[in-house]
Amino acid sequence: MASLMENLLEVLTREEEEYEKLVKLEYEKKQILIDGDVPALEKMTDREQDVSSVLRNLEIRREKIMDDMSMVLGKPKSELTIKYMIELLDKQPDEQARLSDLRTRLKETLSELGQINDLNRMLTEQALELVEYDLNLLKSMRQAPQTANYDRDAGTTGDILGSRGFDTKQ
Questions:
Q1: pLDDT higher than 70, residue 66
Q2: Cα gap 118→59, rounded to integer Å
Q3: DSSP per position, 25-94
Q4: Count of C-beta atoms within a 10 Å radius of residue 127
Q5: 0.70 cut: is pTM over it?
């Protein structure tokens, strides 16, 4: 059980480090979204995917460790929360303190990640609305009505200012 607990602590530590990397990337992404830098956004997405891949592998390892712990303890995996594991380590204060500290840091990091993700989502939505507005403006400019553009025979000229431009003799 001790080696399983050590493996769990190692995996949770690595997960917390990777989530910290993701938080830093999200702050960089915030500025990229504000600047509207599409090439930098593409690179950022690749970097995020790399971190997400590492996190997924760590999650798989953590799940395997939890399966093994479930078998050793004879408890369903659903009952093996970090809080329960902290209580279980009451005779091992060093590991208990490490796990408790990791739990606190993970909660704080994930909370911060959630906040910056919400902000980036709003920035992305605003950017999309602005692009949509610009597209609608461009479409409406191309479809400008041909009113008040008559020649002497009362036919439309097709040009907004006529073929000669403004008549300054009036």
A1: yes
A2: 23
A3: HHHHHHHHHHHT-HHHHHHHHHHHHHHHHHHHHHHHHHHHHHHHHHHHHT--GGG--HHHHHHHTTT-HH
A4: 15
A5: yes
